[in-house]
Amino acid sequence: MRCGITEILPAAASRGLASLLVVCLSSSATLSNAQQVGQFVEPIFRVAHEEEVSQAPQMASRITPPAAQSPLNLELHPGEHPLMPAMRVAQEGLVRIDTTIADYSAMLIKEERIDGVLSPKEVAFIKVRHQPFSVYMFFLQPHKGRECLYNSGPNNTKGLLNARDCGFKKRLGVFELDPDGRLAMNGQKYPIYKLGVRNLVTELIDVANNDTQFGECEVQTKQSVINGRAATLIEVVHPVPRQNFRFYKAELFIDNELKLPIRYASYMWPQQPGQEPPLEEAYTYVNIKLNNGYTDADFDKENVEYFK
What structural domains does the chain harbor? Predict the structure, then answer.
């Protein structure tokens, strides 16, 4: 459900101009795909400014031991909808993000179904700043070297998307696009300003608010491990297809140490009884590093480390 990829196409020769397609959307993949992220190496960028960081970055350790029980309070109160405990956890998580996390970096993996077809897995190294909302992405798969950069406008209004392709298309240079425009959204579900764990949490709260108005909702929680990280898995199932519901099954993995969602996946209803539900979308965040002290220079298209 969130934001991620850049693609640039050559221009129409009749106009003698470079035309392009740039799309940035939140990324992820199936669990087996997510486990392969270790083969990718994130790019290393020099510090933009020699400024003191108010707090040391918090790096999620590679491996955390599985917990016997969830550190989250998922107690179901008598008579309430099965989604309410997860809703409270999400609302508390949103407050925690807004009060304790200024920025983060991560490896982001994405798979999305577009027009009925599951797109190839995308992997990108990302930097995200919450205020003002800014995103930098460097793609590692399938087109290594693609880059995109987004900064929100005044008062977090919609800003512009800067992007450059890789390979021989690099000579087209860096282009500015409307993130909601036809070129930017071609073959994508979400614009880049929907990217990130905070946007994921707010979207899930909106979906849960809708679903709590209806029955036919089954919720299970259990302890799990994903990419070596101990996590609480919240699984939501709508057994009967209804227009009110966006998915058949959704899985949300919340990191037990960071108290952040590190994977979301949703599946549609099987076409035939007994079939596996088809994956609709999945987003996985790996190697999250919190509070890096990013400045405007980290999201400046003139930064010498970007678009080289």
Answer: 13-299 (2.50.20.10)
